[in-house]
Amino acid sequence: MLSSTEMYWSIAIAVLIAGTLAYLLWKQRKEARQPKIKDNYDLPVATKQLQLQAYERLTLLTDRIALPNLVNRVNQPGLSAREMQSLIAQTIRQEFEHNITQQIYVSAEAWDAVKNLKEQNLLIVNQVASFLPENATGLDLNKSLLELTMQNPKASLHNVVAEALSYEAKKLMR
Fold it and tell me: Which pLDDT band holds residue 22 (cuts at 50, 70, 90)?
């Protein structure tokens, strides 16, 4: 299991990333309040529909790669911690790659938020796995990941990213 010092370092890194995303969300909302030269009313209906579908898919991606959801979905008894680490990382990457084309339809900020979520989750999985003993099981890794997210709900960015995606989608619907 993680020592308290190692756990605090992992949490500190996760909180730093969460703070960055929160700042980006705040900045995005601030910019949204400022008058724009071109409004969404000028976009063709088909374009708006594609954009809304992209936000919907990215919201689903955000939910699918949220660590608690991911751990529950890919859990396989009998795997070592290293095998589970690899499976979780591979699943995150596959989910992300499956949705990579959606960046065409969303704002750069929204896409950056999704990319940051992916990177943060990979970082957390790899850090937590690196603190486990060599003989740790996949269950040990999953348990440590769930404990980390339960102890520090703010360290997980998936809620912030989902909120940002939802906000942008709602702006399109005005």
Answer: confident
